Amino acid sequence: HLCDRRQRQMCIRDRYKGVPLMTYTENYQKWLDFAGLPDYLREELLAMDEKTKEDAFYTNLEFGTAGMRGVIGAGTNRINVYVVRQATEGLAKLIETKGEDVKKRGVAIAYDSRHFSPEFAFESAQVLAKHGIKAYVFESLRPTPELSFAVRHLGTFAGIMVTASHNPAPFNGYKVYGEDGGQMPPADADALTDFIRAIDDPFAIELADLEESKTSGLIEVIGENVDAEYLKEVKDVNINQKLIDEYGKDMKIVYTPLHGTGEMLARRALAQAGFESVQVVEAQAVPDPDFSTVKSPNPENQEAFALAEELGRKVDADVLVATDPDADRLGVEIRQADGSYRNLSGNQIGAIIAKYILEAHKTAGTLPENAALAKSIVSTELVTKIAESYGAKMFNVLTGFKFIAEKIQEFEEKHNHTYMFGFEESFGYLIKPFVRDKDAVQAVLIVAEIAAYYRSRGLTLADGIEEIYKEYGYFAEKTISVTLSGVDGAAEIKKIMDKFRDNAPVQFNSTDVIKTEDFLAQTATSAAGVEKLTTPPSNVLKYTLADDSWIAVRPSGTEPKIKFYFATVGNDLTDAEAKIANIEKEINAFVK
What we know:
The longest helix is centred in the middle third of the chain and has 19 residues, at 346-364. The chain contains 21 helices and 23 strands. It is globular, with a radius of gyration of 24 Å. The model is unreliable at 1-20 (pLDDT under 50). By secondary structure, the chain is an alpha/beta fold.
């Protein structure tokens, strides 16, 4: 999908390995001619103008390493029941190559509150059942981390999560998990992609009867039984119960699930841990596929906290927490001295969690000598400094939580390190590895405990952030996502990456670039020469400056976006943020 117009057909031919190509008009006509097409999809087809037709049918919705995500609607480049059936048929064919035992172990399936999420989930189960493959489907919406847990708890071979995470209402998505509860590992993911691409007629995919499959046991509906087991594991997330009992019990917390799955578990988890003064934004506790109270259900954005802030001011809350629709990301706002609320960045949340976990375990005498943390290469180095100050090792991995999950698995198999915490700057955190993906329910619990810790010292979370800066340095970070949709957008993204790769600046903010890392070429170039990177190939470029600032650029793996990451270190926060602003201006000028 990163080809320009002249290369596009050649690239697609390579990508689909011999599958006959059709023009977008031929694909469109094939859909229009299909007699079994539901009325709502046929009406959408008939209403399309030429540009919409091309975007909806010029290619197939890309199935990447994390699955697929797209706009809901008719077309091969949209997400709909036929695209979901095709993906699941590919998964069924992969499972069939593994033998009868794997078919019996089956697949766990969960879904969020979006349009068509229940339909996509149960139709996936019916496709699997047609192949004699067991499917466990949650009775109603559940968080992504619970799906990860369910795969491990039930011992299934794979998991399917129907979600578009924090994207706006027109989107939905489909993620596939491996047997360790992390997103499917590369070998199986590549094989799955090949099976999916080899299916040339999604209209011909057969479904088992839903009720008959339930009766036979091929489809088993699950719910509270798995919830209870997850909540048992969650009890170990908090570190200092005495602290919670003394300072957390009546601490005022406002929580919003932003119309999503967090409502299923977060409130219960907080009550179980002993946080009794939790106020929930009830208007946003109702599942709503249109996310009608927010412009976008993304807890990274302060706008998503508007109702939480309103309630927070009313009840004088110490901390506001928000989970995205599938409850794998957490946003936090903290009350400041003047009573206003300050929105924390993903890196700041990661820093305050890492600092607390390491300090609490050190105080309790439970910090292991081989303690390890993991983060993505585009996340703050502030947490690396924090880890090192406690004698813990930081592992940098590629973006995508599956790479953190791989590290956890490695630690368990080799017994070489003890996992303490993992995070990504994009508001994803994992404390206890009974889940192998980002877990906002766990993150809510630890942030609440951290707020209680600072309260016990007569401080707030805002004071805690300032303490960290004073001890380790003033770090500032910013991420910019630029959406470039459609055929022209894909070509523009490729053009920008090529420009950086072939002709990047040698300075940013009048400061020399001292190291260039090309994660696709797997090289790190500096004055010392060229070193080989050990991470898998990935289309990411990172430039480290002489003052420890850095810049990274990468296309998103699941969305039509290119992302720019800026990180600086300054004498104070104003200085660090001024450097960010200067670098951002230079990047904008460079890519034009």
